[in-house]
Amino acid sequence: MAHAVVEWTDNLATDGFEIRPLLSLIAAEMRDADGVFPLGGIRVRGIRLEDYVIADDTDQDAFVNIRVLMGAGRPAEFKGAFERRYLALSMYIDEADEAGSFKHNNIHHRFRKAD
Asked: Which of 98, 108, 93 is nearest to 38 (CA)?
């Protein structure tokens, strides 16, 4: 299990921000993590936010928030950069409690058959 949710403010689009390359990069990093994340469990999605308030509610502020949820015991390393505008970049890594979760996934079986 490795899920990533990227929330981003729609005003970043005026600077040419494109979510798809970021989602693809995150998914690729998860796939290339030396087997840490099972391929069939990788889920990466982006949510464009149109309704938000940042700080003093001016339109010059923006943010990208990345939330990663992974199964217990897996390591993760991330980094970010700030560029042209005031930007709050945050990330939360949650470790799933196996006792409090339900998962039913037949995608793993497809990849096991290929081995």
From this structure: 108
> What global pTM score does this model have?
0.69
The fold of 2-114 is Macrophage Migration Inhibitory Factor (3.30.429)
How do residues 51-105 score in pLDDT, each as one tens digit?
998 888 888 888 898 888 877 765 544 335 345 566 666 766 777 788 888 777 6
Residue 48 identity: R
CB 71 within 8 A of CB 35: no
In whole angstroms, what is the distance from residue 100 CA to residue 62 CA? 34
CA distance 3 to 24: 13
